User: Fold this.
Amino acid sequence: MFSIILQAGTQAAAKPSMVAQFLPFILMFVILYFLIIRPQRKRQKEHQGLVDNLKINDEVTTNAGIVGKIVNIKKDKNTVVLRVDDTTGTKIEFVRSAIAGIVNDEKPKTK
Assistant:
């Protein structure tokens, strides 16, 4: 009879608690947050800051790889107009979020 009670006691002690069962999932979420989610949010904030600070005559590149100079910013439509060819005056209208970055005119310094 004592052996049955001892066996029941050891089986109950061997069963992990709910926190111990979910601890690996919690740790995986924390790791994913710091490796994937947090850096992505930081990049989104930086890109939004870049898009918000666009001004006329900035030379920019789009997500499609088109380089042009901003000639008009339409805040009501949330678009920008780029001049992509100076000789013909070709202009293309893009959504502001399609701007990938500002092209630096500065030449790299050589040693």
Q: What stands out?
A: The beta strands are 59-62, 67-74, 79-85, 90-95, 99-102. DSSP finds two helices and five strands in the chain. The mean pLDDT is 85. The CA atoms of residues 11 and 58 lie 71 Å apart.
